[in-house]
Amino acid sequence: MQKTYQGEPLDIIHTVGLDTVYPVVRCQIDFAKSLTLNRLANAVQKVSKIIPEIFCRYEIQRNAFIPVTENATDLIRIDVAEPDTDAATWDLMTEPQLRIYWQTVEQKTRLIFYISHILADGAGSKQLLALIARAYRQDQPALTGVVNHQEIDWLIKLVAAHSASQRPVDHPAQPLMLPPIKSTEPQKYRVGSLTLTKKETTNLLSSAREQHVTVNDVVMTAFGRVIQQLAGVERIALACPTDMRPLNPTPVGGYQIANLTSRYNFDVAVAATDSFATIVQKVHAEMAQNKKNHQCFDSIQGLLDQYQHAPLAMLQQTIQANYHMRSIAYTNFGVLNAADLNFGEVPIESLTITGGFRRMPNFQIAVGTFADRLTLAFNMIGTDAEFDQGLRIAKQMAELIQIF
Prior knowledge:
By secondary structure, the chain is an alpha+beta fold. The chain has 10 helices and 15 strands. The strands form 4 sheets. Strands 5-6-7-2-12 form a 5-stranded mixed β-sheet, covered by helices on one side.
């Protein structure tokens, strides 16, 4: 009988809307020099002993991962001209859950990692990258003493004891939407980004502390404010994904490469006279209340309650009701630790992490901090004009952040 690895309940969340946004995490790393290809392949091979699902296809009906290869070289594609266009045909139901593009750019190595979001969320993807880096820089034939904790018994208990919110918040009355741009140009796969300087990032950190808000409050409000003005609505309604790992009352050691993300939903009114700082405080106040009430459990409670006895179609309907995919989305990958992403003697020049590719006017901004610099990035399927609009959104966000 073929070996299978059972998925966890939250993996199913990312099987909804596959025809709209394919569930991936994309990370591009540009190195200062060249890596060694065989060493990278050996590193991935070692990691497969800890995370065998990277060699597996995903079977949606059983929520399970089934091996399709035993060789890390099958996961690495070398010098593909257009990696993102190539990855558009990636099928997680028949192919491995990890794909790596190896590119040589001016005698330096660029790696583009595509990680299945069915397998791991943003925090889990960061840990997977860190594990690959660890395996790359170590000469040992195997990773010893490494354990991956995918179990969610602790989360099921927390959610079962949670009293759900009495007001529906996942389907706002005034959802944020971008007005479409009319064009006859073809839509292409594109990645855009804007990176703050170290000084700008440091100023953001200190200003957030002084005004008793989080950096996430500021950046998320900047995004919401820009889109709200473009949409011409009077409210900012966004879903804020959150990593639930820190909520575990008995933290586990080792790695947690899995899907352990839920979301907070907020919806605040914006007056014409409100300054940006005022709107930040409104968002902060609602987020603080949401955190106090563990509102993030609302979005996954129905799924966890029904998982053991409901058919897949019913589970997906529950996800649509409580965790639906919005036209405008925000995600914060947090800090990407340079020490964790240490590939040995080859330093990293730049790193950009994003989510799936959204066809405009659907749009997502992805935030991440690496080497003390905050980056605002996006993936899109769009025209030149739509790509320019994405860059303008990032620029306007940066301007608001600097004003703050």
